[in-house]
Amino acid sequence: MPKISKNTLVDVSHYGFVVEPRYYYFGWSKSPQILARKSLVDMLKLAKAKLPAGYNFKIYDAYRTYETQKKISESFWKRLKLMHPRLGDEMLFLLLVKFSGGVLKNVPKPDSHRNGGALDLTIIDQHGASLYMGTEIDDLTEKAALDYFKNKRKKFFSMERLAGRNRLMLEQVMTEAGFKGYKYEWWHWSSSN
Ligand SMILES: [Zn+2]
Fold it and tell me: Helix/strand/coil (H, E, C) string of the chain?
């Protein structure tokens, strides 16, 4: 049997996690498989053990090819342009990089989707239902920020407070397992080393 090193890409569905390959559904990825670095999957097993009994993670994306990254960026660019009709291309580009990471061919950073070093995920309950997090995955607004519902100066409705508590649960189990969050996207987690 070949040795699985910590940088080997493995199929996350083989490790007890639920997957929803949205970019495959969208036609942006050729494969329904979600691959991530073995070291990351091991960390996610630690995080899962800290969830309430019966809960699990649903993973939307991890390793990305250049082609998939390009399709995501093209789609986000169209969305951002419609959302911000008055913004110039330079400002739109900054938003694009914030939410998609851009489309560099060579990615030196180890904690990137392009290296299989980042996971997009949420928590599901014992019935398989996603916990309410206040926005969808790939929401391109300020509400996607991990700490958005922690803002003490804002008044939140009860559903928003629920989203805040759910995000806090996610943040706690992930950081305790050694993950690093991304402040603009509550669903994006990478290895902190
Ligand atoms: Zn991500």
Answer: CCCCCCCCEEEHHHHCCEECCHHHHCCCCCCCCCEEEHHHHHHHHHHHHCCCCCCEEEEEECCCCHHHHHHHHHHHHHHHHHHCCCCCHHHHHHHHHHHHCCCCCCCCCCCCHHHCCEEEEEEECCCCCECCCCCCCCCCCHHHCCCHHHCCCCCCCHHHHHHHHHHHHHHHHHHHCCEEEECCEEEEEEECC
